[in-house]
Design brief:
The chain is 44% helix and 11% strand. By secondary structure, it is an alpha/beta fold. The strands form 4 sheets. A 6-stranded parallel β-sheet has the order 4-3-2-5-6-7. Strands 13-10-9-14-15 form a 5-stranded parallel β-sheet, covered by helices on one side. Helix 1 packs across helix 5 (119-126).
Length: 544
Amino acid sequence: MERKMFCFQCQETARGVGCTASGVCGKKPDVAATQDLLIYVTKGLSCVTTALRSEGKAVDKAIDRLVTLNLFTTITNANFDRDAVINAIKRTLTVKSELLQSVADASKLAEAARWNGVESEFEAKARTVGVLATENEDVRSLRELIVYGLKGLAAYSKHANALLKDDEKIDAFIQRALAQTLDDSLSIDALVALALETGKYGVEGMALLDSANTGAYGAPEITTVNLGVGNNPGILISGHDLRDLETLLLQTQGKGVDVYTHSEMLPAHYYPALKKYRNLVGNYGSAWWKQKEEFEKFNGPILMTSNCVVPPADSYKDRIWTTGACGLPGVRHISCEYGETKDFSPIIEQAQGCLPPTELETGTIVGGFAHEQVFALADKVVDAIKSGAIRKFVVMAGCDGRMKSREYYAEFAAKLPKDVVILTAGCAKYKYNKLDLGDIGGIPRVLDAGQCNDSYSLALIAMKLKEVFGLADVNDLPLAFNIAWYEQKTVVVLLALLYLGFKNIRLGPTLPAFLSPNVAKILIENFGVAGIGSVDDDLKLLVG
């Protein structure tokens, strides 16, 4: 079959090798090509900004945010709109061209920094700058590992930026690392070191977003979330952007419209400043990949705020809205500049003419076990460990997905001994957070810290337990890792955990296709990273 594209950045990539005809995610070859070119020109811009910083010159925050947005736009399940990506390429080239004039000596910059093609040249150029442009498979593997980690880091930075929180050190690193992926002089060891440095800044990026979220909305607290529906028309909000949710809640006050969270937006209910809104009714549905059947039944408009987008069916396409880095062809998009307030009135007006949501389930679910809340329960947790009531913790963070092999995680959770507690964050929790696994002395056996970026909380909890028990090594804790991955935010979480010293992480349902055999060997031999096996074998291995 003729290769029309090549993409292997997500776990569901075709045949576990790469999507070559069309993306499993729904991405078409022309969109894949423009996204490849967007990454290339963003690397070129990053060469220029890195050079400017090395000359002691300042880089405007707007440039940093442009780089962040470009990376986020190319993350899996974020943007399928080719026109939007082309506009981002043009904007990036314009900015780069202007900045290039301020570089004292541009002669040594990579070709990407100097290329300034016009739209008629985009298609041909894209064919030469994709993933496979790097011929050495080990260099290619490490470069893509770094780029995917940077995409995840950029996603977290983007959400912090929305709350007007920036960290110039993180932005400068993102741009320097992007530029270094164009440097053919870097050795394998240097690229491995850069990947771990990406993990270091991943920790800082998650800390920045945690500070932004808690500074705006308070520390998450244990909260019971409604799973049923009310009698009013509703708006469903999916993704990760809490600022978008807050704006929507404010603008729907007194309008007779309820707001429901979906998938990764569930943890919004845990924040004191958000759950005070009476029209934040509950969580509707489950993981992102079920949205076609769930959105059909919701009846009202749906706002997509980040990378949880599945190309919609025609039957509800007119009810889908995108914002931020998201985009779908033929779907209405709401945008605004940083620091301004988005106008969601067209969505609210549409909702007022819709039927209330069709009920999918009833009952409640409990979450809100981020680091501050668990620290408040520290004495209770420590006593349970010392008494033997809690034998072990298993971190089951990460992503959910469509593949049948992911049922492994539901079975694994269900078969865990009753004295084992699951620590989770991200949409992986939808495989087991409704299994009613009970509690241990009032401590739920599924402790949901929140969104995927809240894996930071899980690391902090582990570090706190290490301190309490006076251990020299975090790997001596009664703690195991069995992480499900899907996209690039999990990549930066993995690199962050490796940077922090965590070892023997199980990663599934398959190891990333972008890991060459030699790079996989490095991760296995130096960090104990491994794939999953059978449920029963892994239970014996991880829990005993």
